[in-house]
Amino acid sequence: MAPIEKRKSQRKVFHSAIKILVEKIGLYDGITIDISTTGLAATVTGKSLPAGQVCWVRFTILIGSKPHQVEAQCRVIYSICTQNGFKTGFQFLHMNELNAKMVYVFTSG
Question: I want to staple 95 with a disulfide (CB 3.0 to 4.6 A). Which of 41, 45, 60, 72 is the partner?
């Protein structure tokens, strides 16, 4: 039996460097895997982030050929150990209107 997809919006494959800032803990690096209008998945290096952890992420998307830096407050949904790091799911909690529009445009294209 196939697992049930819990996401409410369509994912788009997306590979970009990402920075994750966890207040009072530190800065982590990673590579994104995919993105939707409600969140993203990334492989995070360093250590696992606990589910429920609130953090800030920063990454760049291309709209046409123009790069756009996105910052968003997120919640960690899961973190699974893999041979390349920790596959981590982030749910967007808050981003400004321009960033939300850019993510929507990117994921719709």
Answer: 72
